[in-house]
Structure formats: C-alpha cells, structure tokens
Design goal:
Length: 163
Amino acid sequence: MAEEHRCEAPEGHRLCANNCGFFGSPATLNLCSKCYRDLRLKEEQASSVKSAVEKSLSSASAAASSSSTAPLSPPALTLPEAANEITDPGAVAAAPSSTQPSRCSTCRKRVGLTGFRCRCGITFCGVHRYPEQHGCTFDFKKPGKEAISKANPVVKADKLHKI
C-alpha cells in the first residue's frame, strides 16, 4: 500500500506483513496489533479444535476396544420428511400477511419495530401500550399467584392428640 501512495515508512518502522497499511513490529512478527491479535486467535482456535478432535478420537477408540465383540452399527441419520413441507395453499397465503407492517390495535397507527407487544398478545403504539389505555383482558395477578403457590407448597403437620 505504501508503494501505491509513494510514501516510505520512517526508519525503524516496518509496514504490517499483511499489507493492511499499519505499522508492525518485530515483537509481533512484523504484524500490526490487529493482525497479530487475529493470528493469535486463529492459532488458539486451531489448537482447541485439535485437542477436541484428539479427545473424541481417544474416547471413541477406548469405547471400541471395550466393546470389540459387539458389532458396530452405523450412526442413524434422519432425513427431513416430505410431510413437514407446506402443501396447503391456505397456509402459504397466510405467510405473506405476517410481513405486513404491524399496527396498533387501538388507533391503527403503524408501529413497525417500535411497537409494544402486551402480555395479552396484541401489539400497541407508545400511547396505548399500558393496560389501562387499551382495556387489557390479561389477568396480571394470576401468574404471580401461581408462581407463589408453586414456590411455597402447603405444609400440614400431623395433628397432636390431646390427653
């Protein structure tokens, strides 16, 4: 890159070996700090992958030697079934409607990504996002009561016989 701009690096400084335009140093293998960090990261990832492969191979060979009398079966492969594909034309027509811009259900204002989804499942604008503003039918106390009842089960002691 220095050749293109006809500029020379000052004495004692060398351009990065990756020709990124920054200066490198002999301590970082003549790479700039960013290229050197990327190089170290790639080396660490390669060594971790290598160690993981070696561990899996050693555990596989240990398992194979312990069950050498049992025949090895190939791993089961599952293929996607044709039943999972959408063949209903009504379902295909429903997909484009979800890409339409979302609107506030109270004032029909376009909200886009800034819409607020209430716990009742309906999207509202900033004005109508509060339950008091849109007449929300969601019972906010019920999930709290259920969580408390699950966290604190009823404990009953045995009755004591009076003498």
